């Protein structure tokens, strides 16, 4: 995947004294321990420091590096604590768009699986039964449109497991377009590399201080099919 750099100012969707909501472009990690690697957390801290604010960017949730979509950062410990509570108690709602190879048998469905990381690799798999290392994974999807063997799904995520959406969909024969890890059909598309067609496009939560519902939408960018 091609590396991207970005001016964080161009990706900010909303900001106040407590939170900063922004778009994460595909290919940019939320966090990184590698020196010299551009990551979103560092970009937010640099942006805040440049404006004379405390360089605090509390990471509340993450997206895989190739996934694009909406991320919320807390700008202080108070906001971080409240948003983390909402996240852990399932009060933060996350909706995704995914373009998949294959047409689902059902227009909508609830998928419940046990997921387990594969030792020695950055991969996960569905297990037939619960194991000492597996974790419950739950999502719901509905089909928004279909076109020439490809379907666009809206996905509601209830748990946040490693590669969860990618693994659960691939396990049922509808891997995400552009997924080099789980889609055997992954290939170049009309001479351009097909990025992972997965976007966290809607995020809603209660403001940590104002206590009002906050809802944000950001449609996919790049060569994302059917949007």
Compact description:
This is RNA pseudouridylate synthase. Helix content is 14%, strand content 37%. It has 227 residues and is mainly β.
Task: Sum up the structure in keywords.
about 230 residues; eleven-stranded mixed beta sheet; mainly beta; Pseudouridine synthase
SSE order: EEHEEHEEEEEHEEEE
- Rounded to the nearest angstrom, the distance between the terminal CA atoms is 21 Å
Mean of residue pLDDT values: 93
Strand residue percentage: 35-45%
CATH superfamily: Pseudouridine synthase
Biggest sheet record: 11 strands, mixed
**How many β-strand stretches?**
13
**CATH topology group:** Pseudouridine synthase
Residues in helix, %: 10-25%
Shape type? globular
- The tally of helices reads 3
Pick out the low-confidence regions: none
- Count of spatially separate domains: 1
* Overall radius of gyration: 18 Å
The CATH architecture can be named as 2-Layer Sandwich
CATH class value: Alpha Beta
Helix/strand-derived category reads mainly beta
């Amino acid at each position: 995947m091609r590396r991207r750099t970005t001016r964080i100012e161009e990706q900010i969707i909303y900001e106040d004294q407590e939170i900063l909501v922004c778009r994460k472009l595909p290919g940019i990690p939320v966090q990184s321990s590698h020196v010299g690697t551009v990551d979103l957390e560092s970009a937010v801290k640099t942006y805040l420091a440049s404006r004379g604010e405390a360089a605090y960017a509390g990471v509340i949730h993450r997206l895989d590096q190739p996934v694009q979509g909406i991320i919320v950062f807390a700008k202080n410990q108070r906001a971080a604590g409240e948003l983390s509570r909402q996240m852990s108690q399932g009060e933060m709602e996350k909706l995704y768009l995914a373009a998949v190879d294959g047409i689902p048998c059902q227009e909508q469905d609830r998928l419940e699986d046990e997921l387990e990381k594969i030792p020695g690799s950055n991969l996960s798999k569905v297990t037939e039964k619960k194991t000492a290392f597996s974790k419950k994974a739950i999502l719901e999807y509905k089909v928004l449109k279909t076109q020439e063997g490809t379907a666009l799904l809206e996905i509601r995520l209830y748990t946040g497991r490693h590669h969860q959406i990618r693994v659960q969909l691939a396990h049922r024969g509808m891997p995400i377009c552009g997924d080099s890890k789980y889609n055997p059909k992954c290939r170049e598309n009309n001479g351009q590399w097909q990025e992972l067609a997965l976007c966290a496009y809607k995020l809603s939560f209660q403001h940590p201080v104002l206590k009002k519902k906050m809802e944000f939408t950001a449609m996919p960018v790049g060569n994302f099919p059917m949007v």
